[in-house]
Each structure stands twice: as structure tokens, then as C-alpha cells.
Amino acid sequence: MRDALSKLSTENEELRSRPQEMMDENQRLDDIISSWTKSSTSLQKLQRAMKSSGDKSGLGYGSDESSMAEPSTHPQLDRTKFHTMSFVKSSTRQPEEAKS
Is residue 70 within a helix (H) or strand (E), and if so which, with residue range? Predict the structure, then answer.
């Protein structure tokens, strides 16, 4: 009988300590949720400060050519140079002097 009483007394102490453990766990989870809420608020502020997805200024687009234009890879390169270039086929035959 003493053994059963001792066992019940130990179980009673364990059950009494559980509410404190649960309160500690609740506090830990509350701190995590609070941290996430602050992070979410900061992220929303950052997203509001960023450019919209349609704003392509600063990406090589001209100011009058917003969404229809292609990005310029060489903005200073004169496009007429592409039209005036000429190519020469290289010779694969060796000169007469090199054969001997």
C-alpha cells in the first residue's frame, strides 16, 4: 500500500508541474509568433518600397520604350556599324613560296 501511495504521490507532483511546462511552451511559441509577425511587417514595408514589376527603369530600357522594347546590351554602340561591316573570306591555300 505504501508503494501505491508513493507512486500516486509522484504522479501527482508530475501532473502539478505540467501546467508550468505548458505555460513555458506557450510563452516560447508566443515569442516565435511575435518574431514572425515583426519579420512579416518588415518584409511588407520592404516590398512596398521596391519598384513595381512593370517598372523597367534602370534596366537598359529607354524612357519612352517602357514594356515593348528589348533591353539594350550595348547602349552606346551605334547600330549603323552593324550595317556597314564587311567580312572577308580567309584564304586556306598556302603561298607558292611556303610550298617549297
Answer: none
Residue type, 54: G
pLDDT value at position 73? 56
| Angle ∠(71,74,80) on CA atoms, nearest 5 | 105
For residues 51 and 61, what is the distance between their CA atoms, to the nearest angstrom? 15
* Cα–Cα distance, 72 to 70 (Å, whole number): 6
CA 100/CA 39 separation, integer angstroms: 80
**With pLDDT > 90 as the criterion, what percentage of the chain qualifies?**
33
CA angle 45, 46, 51 (to 5 degrees): 115
**Hunting for cell 512579416 — which residue is that?**
40
